[in-house]
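Quick check before the chapter quiz. The format below is the same one you will see on the exam, so make sure you can read both the input and the output lines.
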Amino acid sequence: MMTASRAVESPRPQTAQALSHTSESPPALGPVAGRERIEVIDILRGVAVLGILMVNMGCFSLPDGLPGHQLWPSMVERTVEKLILFFAQEKFRTLFSFLFGLGLAVQMMRAEARGVRFLPFYLRRLGILFLIGVAHFLFLWDGDIVHNYAVDGCILLLFRRRSLRTLLVWAGIFLSIPLLYFALTTGYAITREVNPQIMKWNAFEDHPDEEQKLMQETRRIYSHGTYIETVKFRAPDLAGDTVPGIADSYILGIFLLGVYAGRRGIFHDVRAHLPFFRRVQGWGLVAGVAGNAAFTVGGAFDPSASSIMENVGRMCLVVGAPAMSCFYASTLILLAQGERWRRRLAPLAAVGRMALSNYLLQSLICTTIFYGYGLSLFCKLRPSLGLLLTVIICLMQVLLSVWWMRRFRFGPIEWMWRSLTYWERQPMRVSRRPSPVA
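Here is the expected output.
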């Protein structure tokens, strides 16, 4: 993929020192200790995982490709869908992807600071994450992104010793691929002349009759099917969903931006980079509003090949989503510099520290609510009520996360993931030192 290789720059002295053990500690990797965690990263991760639910709620409650306003044609429902498109669609997944890349950089710097082998640890970690994602896909919900992250995370290894400049160049290349793709589909919508292969990739336009039958079958299975029937229904899609595609190119680009930020040590010394975050906030707001306004007017994440407006909007989202994510992240970072806002945002850090558990819990709750083996509300909950349900679930997860993290070091899935990665049972409960005798 690349011809030149340059050694990774050494982390900044204060970063390396903060990430290393004392001289008496053995050179081994271990879970990030509480004192080593960067709270603002946990806050951002918590916001990301809660925001993802706002978009996923429509995926849980309706067949893919069926917008809610077609079932409930009212101004209220259409407005709710537009608001979700503008403020949430792809923004929080982008933020989550950025933090995944940032986490890779932190782990890599910790390994180098301690003089231990990073590659075996990282591959075990990704392998277990992949299995967790596959189990999630098969046994709960076919919208899983965890197994995709594990596959794309392996590709990231090609960049772990590249220069900072190379990271930015390749991030731009990966992000330009979906931009070019939707530029081509826009050209087809205008001229009706394009390479047939482009239209073949647009599966939703290839066979509309088959797509309609699939949508009807999806509605039947998830509305009335048994649990075993739902598992059998989505199982054949796993192999195709694992193969990297256009969406993975976008994710890889965001991953690399996260690696770049981690290598630069931006989040390890936030106060020294406050002017940078203020600039990001301003430019992110301007580009985010412009890009997402165009996307919202188009109104389709999977645009029709014949609609110029939908394809232009989708192309603008490739720029608008990362820009708005930058605005969200920088705003939260700047707010967290004040003591009052730091206390207000602290519960979100608890959500972020057990983000994987919360992500899977969302699937467990929502599939139980919507699928036939649960409350059977599939295609019965309008978008406005879905947004209300999202708020209720998010509040519940915040309260549950705060309660859990006061008692345990990890979320339950994080604990299992770490124990299997290190092949050693990790201590679970928070150690409470006895109060000194007066």
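If your answer matched, good. The radius of gyration is 22 Å.
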